[in-house]
Each structure stands twice: as structure tokens, then as C-alpha cells.
Write a structure and sequence with these properties.
The structure holds 2 protein chains of 2 kinds. By secondary structure, chain A is of the alpha+beta class. Chain A has 9 helices and 16 strands. In chain A, α1 (8-16) crosses α2 and α7 (250-259) packs antiparallel against α8 (264-281). Chain B is α/β, with parallel strands linked by helices. Chain B has one domain (4-356): 2-Layer Sandwich (Beta Polymerase, domain 2).
Chain lengths: 309, 357
């Protein structure tokens, strides 16, 4: 059973009472919310995800609720939303319109702080022909735009925020989720793929205007198919410059990668070995681009990597 | 009274082998909230039930263990820094709580979460310690003048500090309870009895004092949501020390000398109730002599068990909020004389209001 197949009323009732366990690939996420306005957006963004039938054992538990405020005033005046993760409320309440971005950030936060079974890198991951492309990124480098652009034109989406590297064999586990777009990227992707579903843009968040793109159904369906990393590409968006793909020395790529990791220090020697192996098996590049068309062409033509001797 | 799945499994780790996936789901959440997830992992490993647990459960428990291992590395590192900076100090430096369990290699350190390093120094050395730390890059984590004064005048520690390049908070204590409170143990006794650590100039409290400090911390500190973890410390300490000859009589004697018999009474009572801590019948009788009158005892039982019971997320158990509030009132009452308390609460209320704007 997929989330999209549940009648809206049933979904609302389940979200309010016991929550739904979404199988998102690497993690089972239990989602609970009594906020009716959130039900439609959840159903649209997560339409293709299977409901987990594993007996009620979830990895992350995220409840989006409306705090009543003094005398319950917030229930009808300037309604807010806040997130409860287990019993903790790690974030300040925000206006209820921001519930979707807040939900997405909260799920990310759970993974970033709890999933030491992986070496976690802040990166988008896509796959083609069995080879994975890893796009580590600081904010503003255009990682998410690039990720959405490729995922909507033939590449399989593994994740737009997390490279989940298995220490045992170095494979990347998929965690396809709605792709978060900011500000100008929203219109870029709308023009790039007018048929893709995008959530209602939310203005005035601390990251500006934010919208989420529904991941392609095929990526969600293949959420258990891991992939071996082949290309490590550090993107930088630069307006009006010709695209360039410059090979990067492995040692430098290693440190850039470790810098983008959520849990590299915690993993000690295991983290070091895992990243070393990944670097040895990949070709690393610095990538400047100013248009998605150029990116699609250049990245699609990347040669198979030559592993380190 | 239902004190939750977590308490039952902390008492009988072997029964983890029989949990359903849905029960694991509840247990892991309760354990995370109580900062006991990695402790649960250690217990499961000892009981030989980790291998039989569902793969998802093992993954989460192991992930928690990795976090705690990292925390323990950071704590050890911070202690080496403190050791270096405080080397010229002509006064004893005693590690307290988690850092002490870790450096004394006690079972209480297993799977224990850490946030900070606590040390105890003589009151007259506080100024020197603070100056030495500040000189080497430690800064106060407290920003308001009121909070700063609160710590210096009314508490038993300096405002918490942290090195500017690191996140580990260092609490420098001159006693184990606030000087404004009703119970005032003599810190000189604690310092005099402290034990050396192998290959280190640092010390740790004597075993009995360690147990008593833990018991004091348990119901005197403001952090009630962490009280289950503290009670777990008490349990592990007592189990670790109880084999030593004369531990129980020494513990009771020491509680009298330090005037902290009541906290010991409560600590043992609830450790026994929740963790099945073994207390010899004779010692239990001796401790019971300092029990509060029956109505107070009944009230504390109800409040503490209600406050500690972990509940289902997003659906707080009825009465838990009230229990927590009443215990907080008690905590403040024990900490300060009434007039000082009134002043403090008025200030806190005003600050909260301004912040909440």
C-alpha cells in the first residue's frame, strides 16, 4: 500500500491518531499530525512511498503539532506549528504555513544526529548505469538545483541532502525524499520540468522562499537499491560563465568530503577507512556551471572512474 | 503504578529478548528521551540479547553507542586540558560525576551519556581556578549579569565555562549542594577523603561520597527529566561498590557526617523500586530511620514515580506535568530561603515574559 492510495480522510485520521509509518528507504519515518492543512501536502509529496508493515517499529518519530499558546489563543489566532521528535522539541514554533519545510528539516535533523551506521556526508546523490554521482555541497553552491535538474531528466535520485555510505562495503544507500529548493531555483526547476509536482512555495523562512519537489516515482520505488560511488563532483554555480569540469587531486577531495560530513569525527578510524576507500574508487572534479543544460550534458558524459592504484 | 517499559527492562535486561517490534519502538524512544539509549545497548550486550534483536534495533543501539564513545573521547580530552592548565594549582582537583566514573573506570561509565566535566575544588581556590581557565581560553557560557551573580552568590559552582574552541562545558564546584540550601555538607570532608587516580594528579570522591553526591544530585538538582539516568548511575555505583568490605556501614556513617541522610534515603528507595538495586535488609532498616513522615513519603513516592515515568510522545500522561511542577517547587524550596526564592522567581518570571514578548 502506498501513501497516495489511502483516501484523504483515512490518511487524516491516521495521522491524527496513531501516525503513519513511511518506508523512505534507509529509514522508517513515523509521521503524526493533527493539523488538517498539512494532510494534503504530505499526501502529494509522499504519494509514492510505501507504508511500512513491519509491525510498528520506526526509526524516526516526527509529530507536527500546533502549540495552543497562552489561554489556547494560538489555536485560532496566528496558528503555529512545532515539531516533537520523540519527546523533545528541538526547534522554536513557527507560523503554521511553514509546517512542510519544518517537517522536512526535522526528518533531516533526525538522520544527521542519529544514523552512525553510515558515514554521512551532506551531499546530493544520483545514479546512472549503476554508477553514483555524489555532489557534496555547502549552502548556495547550487547542489539542490542541480540535483532536482538531473533527477527530473533521467538520473535516479538517491538523496538530495545525504550521502549515506555503508562502512562495510562502501555502497551508498538511497534515501529519496522531497527535494528542497530555495528562492530563484524554484522558478528554474518549474521551467525545467513543468510537469513535476512542487509544494506551495513558503516565503520568509530563515532560508528565504522554500518549495519541495516530489521525487520521481521510479526513484522511490528503487529506494532499496544501493549504488557504488563513481564520481565526486563539487559544484559551484557561477552566473554567465562557461561550464568547466576540472579534475581534483584525491587528497584534496578527501578533506573537502570530511568537511561536509555530519559524523566523521564520531566514527574514528572507521570513518577514515570508509572515506579513503570511497576517494580511491572515485574520480573527483570541481564543477562550475551556469545552466542546467550544460550540467546535464557534461555530467552525463563523465567517463567511468579510474580507481587509485 | 506503571513506570513504563523502560524501567522494567533496565531491571530485567534479559527480557528484551521477548519484545515485539512495537514494544521496541516504545522502549527505544523512552530510552532516548531519558538519555539511556547507550546504557540500554550495554545492558543488552551483557545480557546476550543484542544479537537476537531486530536489525533496526541493533542499528539504533549501536549508533547510540558510537555517539557515547565520541562523547567519552571528548570528555577525556577535556580532562587532559584541565589537568595541564590546573597543574600549578596548589589545591586538590576532584573529578565529579560522569568524568569521575570514566576516569576511575567504574561500571557506571558504561554507555553513559556525557555533556560536561564537573570538578570540585576548595572554595578558597575558586578564584585561582577561574583565572587559570580564563587565561587559557575558557569563557563563561552565561551572558546575563543576573545569571552570573546567581551562580556566584547562590549556587555551589562558578558560572559554567567552556573553552572557546570546544563545546564541552566545565562546571567548577566548591560543594555538592548550594550554600543557600537547608542541607549543607562540609566540602572539606569530601576533599579530605578524595582518592588519587592512577597516573594522574586528579582525584575522585571516596566511594561512599560518590554515592552520596549522586543521591544529592538526584532530587536536589533542577534537571528532573534526567533523573532516571541519575538513578541509573546510583544503581551502577552501588552495585559496583557493594562488594567492598564495610561499604554499607561506611555509607550510612558518612551520610550522617555529611548531613545528607534524607537524599540517601530517597536515592536508595527509588533505585530499589526502579532498578532493583540490591540493598541489604539491615541497611534498609537503618536508612528507613531517616525516612520522612508517612504522608510526605507517600507524596514523594507518587510524585517521583509519576515524574520519572517516560510517556508516549505527544501524549503526556495525565499528572506528569503537575508532578514535575511540584517537584520543581520542592527543589527550589530546598535550595533557598523563602525571601531569596521569591526574589529569584519574580526575576525569572519577568525575564521569561520579556523574552517571550
Amino acid at each position: 500500500m502506498r501513501l497516495g492510495e489511502l483516501p484523504r480522510r483515512d490518511l487524516a485520521a491516521r495521522l491524527e491518531r496513531r501516525g503513519v509509518d513511511l518506508d523512505t528507504g534507509a529509514f522508517i519515518v513515523r509521521l503524526e499530525t493533527p493539523i488538517a492543512a498539512l494532510v494534503g501536502e504530505v499526501q502529494s509529496l509522499y504519494r509514492d512511498y510505501p507504508l511500512d508493515e513491519g509491525g510498528g517499529l520506526a526509526d524516526f518519530h516526527v509529530a507536527v503539532v500546533s502549540p495552543p499558546g497562552p489561554l489556547g489563543i494560538r489555536r485560532w489566532w496566528r496558528q503555529q506549528a512545532t515539531v516533537i521528535l520523540d519527546e523533545d522539541r528541538p526547534f522554536e514554533p513557527l507560523p503554521v504555513d511553514m509546517a512542510v519545510p519544518m517537517l522536512e528539516w526535522s526528518i533531516n535533523w533526525c538522520a544527521a544526529t542519529r544514523a552512525n551506521q553510515y558515514v554521512m556526508i551532506h551531499a546530493a546523490v544520483l545514479e546512472r548505469g549503476g554508477c553514483a554521482l555524489v555532489l557534496p555541497g555547502v549552502s548556495g553552491a547550487g547542489k539542490s538545483t542541480l540535483c532536482a535538474g538531473l533527477a527530473l531528466r533521467g538520473w535516479r535520485l538517491l538523496s538530495d541532502e545525504f550521502a549515506l555510505i555503508r562502512p562495510g562495503d562502501g555502497a551508498l544507500d538511497p534515501w529519496p525524499r522531497p527535494i528542497s529548493l530555495k528562492n530563484a531555483s524554484i522558478d528554474v526547476i518549474r521551467r525545467w520540468a513543468p510537469d513535476a509536482y512542487m509544494s506551495m512555495p513558503v516565503p520568509h523562512t530563515n532560508k528565504g522562499t522554500v518549495a519541495h519537489v516530489r521525487p520521481p516515482a521510479d526513484s522511490v520505488r528503487r529506494a532499496r537499491e544501493s549504488a557504488m560511488p563513481a564520481w565526486l563532483v563539487f559544484p559551484a554555480f557561477e552566473k554567465d560563465t562557461p561550464p568547466s569540469l576540472t579534475p581534483m587531486p584525491r587528497a584534496r577531495a578527501f578533506f573537502r568530503l570530511a568537511d561536509c560530513s555530519f559524523n566523521y569525527p564520531s566514527l574514528g578510524i572507521r570513518g577514515f577507512r570508509t572515506l579513503s576507500r570511497m576517494i580511491d574508487g572515485c574520480d573527483a572534479y570541481e564543477f562550475r556551471y551556469s545552466s542546467l543544460d550544460d550540467a546535464l550534458g557534461l555530467l552525463g558524459a563523465l567517463p567511468l572512474p579510474t580507481p587509485a592504484a | 503504578m506503571d513506570i513504563g517499559l523502560l524501567a522494567r527492562l533496565l531491571r530485567e535486561p534479559a527480557s528484551m529478548a521477548r519484545l515485539t517490534p512495537a514494544e521496541w519502538d516504545v522502549l527505544l524512544r523512552q530510552a532516548r528521551h531519558a538519555s539511556l539509549l547507550a546504557r540500554l545497548e550495554a545492558l543488552a550486550r551483557d545480557a546476550g540479547v543484542l544479537e537476537a534483536a531486530p536489525a533496526r534495533v541493533r542499528t539504533r543501539l549501536e549508533s547510540a553507542r558510537i555517539d557515547v564513545e565520541q562523547q567519552q573521547r571528548l570528555i577525556r580530552w577535556e580532562v587532559t586540558r584541565l589537568r595541564r592548565v590546573l597543574a600549578p594549582l596548589r589545591a586538590p582537583v576532584v573529578l565529579l560525576k560522569g568524568a569521575a566514573y570514566l576516569h576511575a573506570d567504574l561500571p557506571a561509565a558504561r554507555g553513559r551519556q556525557f555533556n560536561d566535566v564537573d570538578i570540585l575544588v576548595p572554595a578558597e581556590a575558586l578564584g585561582d581556578v577561574e583565572a587559570m581557565l580564563r587565561g587559557e581560553g575558557w569563557v563563561s557560557t552565561v551572558s546575563s549579569a543576573y545569571d552570573d551573580r546567581y551562580y556566584r552568590e547562590w549556587s555551589h559552582e562558578l558560572p559554567p565555562m567552556a573553552h572557546k574552541d570546544r563545546q564541552v562545558v566545565v562546571d567548577v564546584h566548591h560543594n555538592i549542594l548550594p550554600p543557600t540550601g537547608r542541607l549543607r555538607p562540609d566540602a572539606r570532608l569530601l576533599l579530605a577523603a578524595a582518592r588519587p587516580l592512577p597516573e594522574s594528579p586528579l582525584r575522585v570522591l571516596a566511594p561512599e561520597d560518590m554515592v552520596l553526591h549522586c543521591a544529592c544530585h538526584l532530587f536536589m538538582s533542577g534537571e528532573l527529566h534526567k533523573s532516571l539516568r541519575d538513578l541509573g548511575d546510583l544503581d551502577a555505583l552501588v552495585r559496583g561498590f557493594a562488594g567492598g568490605a564495610g561499604f554499607w556501614p561506611a555509607l550510612l556513617e558518612r551520610a550522617r557526617a555529611l548531613h545528607v541522610e534524607r537524599p540517601l534515603y530517597y536515592g536508595l528507595r527509588f533505585a530499589e523500586r526502579l532498578f532493583g538495586t540490591p540493598v541489604p535488609a539491615q541497611s534498609r532498616l537503618a536508612v528507613a530511620r531517616v525516612a520522612p513522615p508517612a504522608p510526605v513519603r507517600a507524596a514523594m513516592d507518587t510524585l517521583v514515580l509519576a515524574a520519572m515515568a517516560p510517556d508516549q510522545p505527544a501524549r503526556p500522561r495525565r499528572g506528569k506535568g503537575l508532578a514535575l511542577r511540584l517537584l520543581t517547587v520542592r527543589h527550589h524550596w530546598l535550595r533557598m530561603p523563602p525571601l531569596m526564592l521569591a526574589r529569584h522567581l519574580v526575576h525569572q518570571a519577568l525575564v521569561r515574559r520579556t523574552d517571550g514578548g
